[in-house]
Amino acid sequence: MNTDFDKIVDRKPYNNVKFGLRKAYFGTEDIDPLWVADMDFEVAEPINNAIVKRAAHAVYGYPFADDDFKASVCDWQWKQNQWKVAPEWVSGLPGVVPALLTAVLSFSAPSDEVIVQPPVYFPFFDVIESVGRNVVKNPLILNNGRYEMDFDHLQKVITDKTKMLLLCNPHNPSGRMWTKSELTKLGEICAQHQVLIIADEIHSDLTLGGRKHQPIAKISPQISEITVTCSSASKTFNLAGLTCAYTIISSDTLRRKFDKMLSMTHLFISNVFGLEATSAAYRSGSGWLEELKLYLEETIAQMEVFFQENLPQVKMMKPEAGYLVWLDFSACGDPKAVRKKLIEEARVGLNHGSSFGAEGENFHRINIAVRRAEVFSALSRIQKVFSN
Ligand SMILES: Cc1ncc(COP(=O)(O)O)c(C=O)c1O
């Protein structure tokens, strides 16, 4: 392996949410922050080289997602997912959350309904409610420690006010990868009821154990025509601070509306360094990504053993993609008391499951994209607190 993922990188001196907002979020700085979904790892060398090269030009006027950027996205989607994306389907913007918000604004009106499947990435709720649309929940079913979609309930909650469904594929917080048959069923129900699918596929490159991601828009032309795919290199290559993402929309009608909203909000302006970094990652980052996945897989394998042997009362949901692990503390008592113990006694800062919807109340999400030793130092402290 060329990359040393065990290298100590001190992020504290530099502005970042993970360390900088510990007090605001956990009430103390005396915790190991294993929450916000970014990585402690330095980026792949070609990415940094591209940024340094661009910085040398020293003029940072407004950039946009140009043909070169779009070509890198299309080539990447082909390489990763064998998905043939036409360059004109791609729009650039500063983030996937802004893309979700833009979709809600473009394709619904106040008091319309938008479906989410909780527990799910918390901004899904915010982008709907903050602009006066109504969240309709189709909660995931927990079956033998694995989430499944509830298609019967989904059909029941769709009304003539339902304009779209926000899909998280792969799923944050559980790391579940939806299968082709699940996505086909979801797509068919949505197509039948003219409900748009806003597919957040930001975790799609971090598939583990040799699994292959299934973009929902690739399933059929019919599903593609009702889908807005939102993605970015930011999770995969640790570029969140460079604010650069993109959407893929094959329907001309939807894309025109979406792009009009981007133009009104000026969100079509991307970030100079984000564009360069994304293209460099997509063109030269595959080797680094494979190494990262191996490192994460090994951490996850060791975590499974750790929980089985030392902390069986906490159930770990093994992620199929990504570096976020969903931990079930149901057997450890009152959720608020568990959270207090994690912060005050174990001194670890995890994302409390309730922020992903009430369905996540008994869970905590741990970010394992840090040095392995740090993960196990935190887990050992959790073990001490909860094995009593
Ligand atoms: C599912 C999902 N979507 C979007 C984002 C954030 O995307 P961005 O920073 O591009 O807005 C995250 C970050 O954790 C995420 O997990």
From TrEMBL:
The keyword Zinc belongs to this UniProt entry's keyword annotation: no
Cofactor: pyridoxal 5'-phosphate
Domain of life where this protein originates: Bacteria
Family annotation (SUPFAM superfamilies): PLP-dependent transferases
Residue ranges occupied by any Aminotransferase class I/classII large domain in the UniProt entry: 58-382
InterPro entries to which the protein is assigned, alphabetical: Aminotransferase_I/II_large, C-S_lyase_PatB-like, Class-II_PLP-Dep_Aminotrans, PyrdxlP-dep_Trfase, PyrdxlP-dep_Trfase_major, PyrdxlP-dep_Trfase_small
EC numbers, comma separated: 4.4.1.13
CDD domains: AAT_like (cd00609)
Keywords on record: Lyase, Plasmid, Pyridoxal phosphate
Family statement: Belongs to the class-II pyridoxal-phosphate-dependent aminotransferase family. MalY/PatB cystathionine beta-lyase subfamily.
Stored PANTHER family: PROTEIN MALY
Protein's recorded name: cysteine-S-conjugate beta-lyase
